Amino acid sequence: MNDQDLLRYSRHILLDEIGIEGQEKILAAHVVIIGAGGLGSAAAPYLVAAGVQTITLIDHDTVDLTNLQRQIMHQHASIGKPKVTSGKETLEKLNPAIKVNALQEKASASLLNELLPTTTVVLDCSDNFTTRQLVNELCVQHRVPLVSGSAIRFDGQVSVFDQRKDDSPCYACIFPKDQSFDEVKCSTMGVFSPLVGIIGTIQAAQALQIIMDIGQTLKGRLLLWDAQSTEINQIQINKQHNCPVCSIKN
């Protein structure tokens, strides 16, 4: 780190649990964020502000007026732009020293197979079951830690699936791939604006803890946030030894 870095990140460095060593780990990290919507808009700025030097944003969508109620990485002038382009502009203004790879496409197996060998941690900030399952499968295969979040109406949830640990469950241990349910989206169900900020910033915090290997992450726990009652609950989750995704990993 140079003198500017020491000054910029001094409030981290003052923390005994982080220090210079922890900050250097943050600077060296590569974080992949799937989705530049509500959750991604909250998570990405904090990761960039904290010093993550390489961020890869993946999202195929463009900014719409209805997004601006909660997706704070985008501005009114960004309407019609690709979300990853708008996000890149915001993040580079926040921290000019970082590199943002803006990929306007859907997350695919081929893309993730290309990215994950050099990825420190993945944040799943997507909004559909199919993408979550795909991201989970590829993170299991590449043994890359996954921080998964979701938010709808007033309810949010977040967990960590860390396949570097043999006892860690994966997303499919809780939500089996063959599970049948009705997909719910905020476009039809609505979502409380600050909720995506709360869940997204928790995802960012979990990612930083993983990068620095400090504290206790949400591995093996599903955190549930009820924004109406302001209640937080946790559910213990265990690895399913018959899970078709993580029980057969190499």
Give the strand content: 15-25%
Largest sheet, order of strands side by side?
3-2-1-4-5-6-7-8
Chain-averaged pLDDT = 94
Number of helices: 10
As for the CATH topology, it is: Rossmann fold
- Name the helix and strand elements from N-terminus to C-terminus, one letter apiece: HHHEHEHEHEHEEHHHEE
Explained architecture:
By secondary structure, the protein is α/β, with parallel strands linked by helices. It has a single domain (3-236), classed as NAD(P)-binding Rossmann-like Domain (Rossmann fold), CATH 3.40.50. 38% of the residues lie in helices and 18% in strands. The chain has helices at residues 3-8, 10-13, 19-28, 38-50, 83-94, 109-115, 129-142, 171-174, 186-189, 193-212, and strands at residues 30-34, 54-58, 99-103, 121-124, 146-152, 155-161, 221-226, 231-236. The chain has an eight-stranded mixed β-sheet, with helices on both faces. Helix 4 runs parallel beside helix 5 (83-94) and helix 4 (38-50) packs across helix 10 (193-212). The longest helix is centred in the last third of the chain and has 20 residues, at 193-212. The mean pLDDT is 94.
